[in-house]
């Protein structure tokens, strides 16, 4: 049964400190259509300004995480201008995830292919069920996954990235973890528990340290070593002056638990 036109493309649910965004086109394997991209971008913009959100979990309805771009929609709008606009829109979303103050955890089940694999890779962390599979398979239909290559090449080794990009072949969750594409593999039954525990571990830390640390991590990756160390030192100095760091150090020296309430 197909979804009604007014069914949300993305569902949001909030718990203490953790917001879950669920791709909600499961009957079509959650393609990154124009509407899905806009819906995700809107949610991330709202979350970025919401200090009550400490961690974001990106999940998906149905049998798969995300099958990539909506090829039917792309075929129906065959023009260079449309394609440029679509890929720019998708790239803007991927960068929004990286720029978000809060860490984003991908909760992956089933397949994550092409831009769907890119979406997983752009999340800060990723936990997958043992039935998950990953591919950048555009080359199999004659379209090299150039934009997913940007994310993939920054997470796995060059030769592993090129093998995936040139062959379009799927790898299973264990191989994805070994290559550094994801963090953890668990059974389907354990997936939600593992994601919740990982999110809780982050929520337990001071928000300012997490936000500053995430920002620094991605900025320094694009720098030379000397500039990276300079920025890292400045970031740590600012972090150290924050009340949460002062409390954490005092608690450590006094051999007690820090009170970050």
Structure description:
This protein has 261 residues and is of the alpha/beta class. 49% of the residues lie in helices and 15% in strands. Strand 2, helix 1 and strand 3 (55-60) form a beta-alpha-beta unit. Helix 1 (34-48) runs parallel beside helix 3, helix 3 (80-99) packs parallel to helix 4 and helix 9 (207-221) runs antiparallel to helix 10. 33% of the residues are buried.
TL;DR?
With 261 residues, this protein is α/β, with parallel strands linked by helices. It has helices spanning 34-48, 71-75, 80-99, 115-122, 146-152, 158-167, 173-179, 191-203, 207-221, 225-241, 243-253, and strands at 10-15, 18-23, 55-60, 104-108, 111-113, 125-129, 133-135, 171-172, 184-186. It is built from eleven helices and nine strands.
What level of helicity do the residues show?
A: 40-55%
The total strand number stands at 9
Q: Per DSSP, what share of the residues sits in E-state strands of 2 or more residues? A: 5-15%
**Oligomer classification:** single chain
Distance between the termini: 47 Å
Helix vs. strand class: alpha/beta
Helix-strand topology string: EEHEHHEEHEEHHEHEHHHH
Major sheet details: 6 strands, mixed
Tell me, briefly, the overall form. Answer: globular
Alpha carbon gyration radius: 19 Å
Major sheet: arrangement of strands: 1-2-3-4-6-9
> How many DSSP helices?
11
User: Poorly predicted ranges (pLDDT <50, ≥5 residues)?
Assistant: none
Average pLDDT works out at 94
């Amino acid at each position: 049964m197909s979804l009604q036109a007014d069914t949300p493309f993305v569902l949001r649910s909030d718990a203490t400190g953790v917001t879950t965004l669920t791709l909600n086109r499961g009957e079509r394997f959650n393609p990154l259509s124009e509407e899905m991209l806009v819906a995700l971008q809107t949610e991330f913009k709202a979350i970025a300004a919401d200090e009550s959100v400490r961690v974001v979990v990106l999940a998906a309805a149905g049998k798969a995480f995300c099958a990539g771009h909506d090829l039917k929609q792309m075929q129906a709008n065959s023009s260079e201008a449309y394609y440029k606009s679509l890929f720019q829109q998708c790239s803007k979303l991927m960068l929004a995830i990286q720029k978000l103050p809060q860490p984003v955890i991908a909760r992956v089940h089933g397949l994550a292919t092409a831009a769907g694999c890119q979406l997983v890779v752009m999340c800060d962390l990723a936990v997958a069920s043992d039935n998950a599979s990953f591919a950048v398979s555009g080359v199999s239909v004659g379209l090299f996954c150039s934009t997913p290559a940007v994310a993939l090449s920054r997470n796995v080794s060059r030769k592993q990235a090129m093998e995936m990009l040139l062959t379009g072949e799927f790898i299973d969750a264990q191989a994805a973890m070994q290559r550094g594409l994801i963090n953890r593999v668990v059974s389907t039954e354990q997936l939600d528990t593992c994601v919740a525990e990982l999110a809780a571990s982050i929520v337990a830390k001071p928000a300012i340290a997490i936000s500053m640390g995430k920002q620094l991590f991605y900025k320094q990756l694009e720098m030379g070593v000397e500039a990276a160390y300079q920025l890292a030192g400045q970031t740590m100095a600012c972090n150290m002056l924050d009340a949460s760091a002062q409390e954490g150090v005092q608690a450590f020296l006094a051999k007690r638990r820090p009170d970050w309430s």
